[in-house]
Design brief:
By secondary structure, the chain is mostly helical. It is built from 14 helices and no strands. The longest helix has 29 residues. The N and C termini lie far apart (46 Å).
Amino acid sequence: MTPHRPDSDSADRGSGAATGGPVLGISRLQWADAWAGLKAIAPLMPGSAAFGLAFGALVPVAGINPWTGLYASVSVVAGASQISVVESVRAGAPAVIAVVTALIINARFALYSAALGPVFSAFPRRWKLGLAHIMTDQAAVVALQHADRYPDPVRRRWFVLGGALPFVTVWIVGTLVGVVAGPIIPDSWQIGFIVPLMFVAVMVPTLRRSEDVVALGITAVVVVASRGLPYGLNVMVGIISGIVAGTAWAEWADARRRARGMPPESLADAAEHEAEGGL
């Protein structure tokens, strides 16, 4: 007899036997897990819709083909870096500056990857690749917070999918609405204010550690102080300065924790704090 594999597709179908049979080839238990993921991330969805709307509205303003902007939301799935690219294009910056700035902003996903590695380790490769593409900041923190409640990897991956996929769908739909509505939004509305407003709304509730405050504070000061730099380079300089300052402060803070007999913050904890930020 072939041993039961909890991460196999047969587990997806078979585990629904006691719950009424599969729907569309997926067991009712997995549907319930996906629904739980959706409910867990639902309070964050209005922010995803608003951020998508802001990005979509800025695309035509920057002279970018609307279809290109929509494709970016489907393929990149990273609102902060997409906004930075659009702003670089508006400022007439060379492509290399826009790309490097976006890469620096998205470097945070390396931290998420390290923290989510144990959560995804039992998933089949196709699930790992698919979920990795739609893993936003918010989906990452929801997955980390609820991983222990789903020791079965089959149920866990359906929970993660139920949170991540609808959240990204809302982001894409928001972008589409913004692209379509952008040209009809009056200039007097100054739609650009939505972007910094979203960053403030997303970041302020997550400032739980002193190193977070230092990193954000240094970034803001440097961005403002260097606003005269061409091509929007002040954003990239500010981000790098904030990363350096925040990292140095975190090392100092960890040294103090160790001196007091307290363990330094784990990578998973740091990723969870960071993941509570924006898309």
